[in-house]
Amino acid sequence: MKFGVVRFPGTCDEVDAYLAASRVGDAEILWHADADLKGVDAVIVPGGFSYGDHLRVGAVARFAPVMAEVETFAADGGLVLGICNGFQVLCEAGLLPGALLPNTSLKFTCRQVDLEVVNASTSWTNVTAVGDVLSIPAKHTTGRYYAPDATLDELEANGQVVLKYAPGHNFNGSVRDIAGVSNAAGNVVGLMPHPEHAVDPLTGSADGLKLFASAAAVPA
Ligand SMILES: NC(=O)CC[C@H](N)C(=O)O
């Protein structure tokens, strides 16, 4: 399994995503201006502040040449994971439902959160079980997941709510405690917390590695 990690101007978590993916497969960095996914089997859109978060988080990055390729790749069933700013970019691109709004505190917050697995059948959660609790760090200003009630009902009915903040851990005010969602097919997943920063017990938790191991378990 070869992972491609997209780098935009202002991305800051691509190296950790690259190192996390390298623990379970091969990885390489993909440049935003190149309309070329270099034959990878899975794409990670990582965290950071693409294009300085100007206009609106993810709003500029979704027009990068590499994103046109990511859209085609996702439509063909390719595995795509958006982490934090990557989640924001995928929502802006319409690859995932909903939007990320400023945290209710209107402040940048960095803290460890517990996430509950709601759907363990997606390409990025298949080595977990429903109800598993994953301890993963979160760090953002614009992480309050939002979608209209009718969309949320549909997402819940389709199993597209993949991860929820455990009771007491929804620090950003996300609707229905939603931390991560998938597209209808389950090959595209996005979440606000950072699994790539939780891959080694030495730094507090290796729970994040399960997302990368899930993708690696999908036949390439
Ligand atoms: N860690 C990140 O990816 C930061 C995400 C983002 N641009 C925000 O603060 O909302």
Automatic annotation (TrEMBL):
<dbReference type="InterPro" id="IPR029062">
    <property type="entry name" value="Class_I_gatase-like"/>
</dbReference>
<dbReference type="GO" id="GO:0006189">
    <property type="term" value="P:'de novo' IMP biosynthetic process"/>
</dbReference>
<dbReference type="GO" id="GO:0004642">
    <property type="term" value="F:phosphoribosylformylglycinamidine synthase activity"/>
</dbReference>
<dbReference type="GO" id="GO:0005524">
    <property type="term" value="F:ATP binding"/>
</dbReference>
<keyword id="KW-0547">Nucleotide-binding</keyword>
<keyword id="KW-0658">Purine biosynthesis</keyword>
<keyword id="KW-0378">Hydrolase</keyword>
<protein>
    <recommendedName>
        <fullName>Phosphoribosylformylglycinamidine synthase subunit PurQ</fullName>
        <ecNumber>6.3.5.3</ecNumber>
        <ecNumber>3.5.1.2</ecNumber>
    </recommendedName>
</protein>
<dbReference type="InterPro" id="IPR010075">
    <property type="entry name" value="PRibForGlyAmidine_synth_PurQ"/>
</dbReference>
<keyword id="KW-0963">Cytoplasm</keyword>
<keyword id="KW-0436">Ligase</keyword>
<feature type="active site" description="Nucleophile">
    <location>
        <position position="84"/>
    </location>
</feature>
<dbReference type="GO" id="GO:0005737">
    <property type="term" value="C:cytoplasm"/>
</dbReference>
<comment type="subunit">
    <text>Part of the FGAM synthase complex composed of 1 PurL, 1 PurQ and 2 PurS subunits.</text>
</comment>
<feature type="active site">
    <location>
        <position position="194"/>
    </location>
</feature>
<dbReference type="GO" id="GO:0004359">
    <property type="term" value="F:glutaminase activity"/>
</dbReference>
<feature type="active site">
    <location>
        <position position="196"/>
    </location>
</feature>
<comment type="function">
    <text>Part of the phosphoribosylformylglycinamidine synthase complex involved in the purines biosynthetic pathway. Catalyzes the ATP-dependent conversion of formylglycinamide ribonucleotide (FGAR) and glutamine to yield formylglycinamidine ribonucleotide (FGAM) and glutamate. The FGAM synthase complex is composed of three subunits. PurQ produces an ammonia molecule by converting glutamine to glutamate. PurL transfers the ammonia molecule to FGAR to form FGAM in an ATP-dependent manner.</text>
</comment>
<dbReference type="Pfam" id="PF13507">
    <property type="entry name" value="GATase_5"/>
</dbReference>
<keyword id="KW-0067">ATP-binding</keyword>
<comment type="pathway">
    <text>Purine metabolism; IMP biosynthesis via de novo pathway; 5-amino-1-(5-phospho-D-ribosyl)imidazole from N(2)-formyl-N(1)-(5-phospho-D-ribosyl)glycinamide: step 1/2.</text>
</comment>
<keyword id="KW-0315">Glutamine amidotransferase</keyword>
